[in-house]
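Please review this one:
***
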Amino acid sequence: MKWLLGDLRAFVAAIRKQLRETRRYPMLVLGSLFWPILLPSLYVLMGQVYSGGGDPRALAAFAERSGIADVTGFVFVGFAMYMWLSIILWGPGTALRQEQMRGSLEAVFLTPASRLVVLFGPPIGTLYVILFQFAVMGLALWLLFGIVLDLGAVLRALVVLAFAIPALYAIGSLFAAAVLRYGEIGPTVHFVRGALVLACGITYPVIMLPGWAQSVAAALPPTYIVDDLRRVLLAGTPLSGVASDLLVIFGLTIAFAAVAIGVYRWTELYARRTGALGRY
């Protein structure tokens, strides 16, 4: 029991550390206000131009392919997922590598805390940033485009988010362990984020992808998360209508977390053998 309480204290300390680092850079809050509004708004305005100012035939074709009639809401929910992935990959996804570059990773590994604390602690510290951006996007939908989300739909979306948070943080932890092994941050983030955006239906319906790509998308949690959020927020789908997807997300969460732990332990053994832990 003592070791469990000790790991719990270490887990809380890892979260507090991440929050303290975030508070040290308050100008980043401007980015949280700027990008969640600008990026999706540009795509919405472009879509209105390309659809002939909201031509009914164009909107009907979009609704047939996506299952969502609200183009603006479709784009904003997709970009909310895009911003979430960006925060996870650039923040917790690179946390271990940042510790290594600062020269503090070896000291962290010398503590008696579980290695899982180091792997899964930092992502929780970014949760409030993600929720803040979701709120900003909701206000932008209302103030700029006159779309008011139903309170019941928002509550259902929170249930979906409760399943989504562990799934995406498992992906972030897997990414962090892989980055620690190979050392590259920028190119790897851009590649992984781009692949997820292309495969998971973030900016367009998954049905537009070829068959093999749809099979790949079916193995990735963001595919189900963004689709379920759109359905409960924009189509009025009850939770019973997405229950099977939530079970799939839960199963994929366990799978990605297990792989992340395995990769992390393999990376640590490799570092012990080669002395790579303290290298820049």
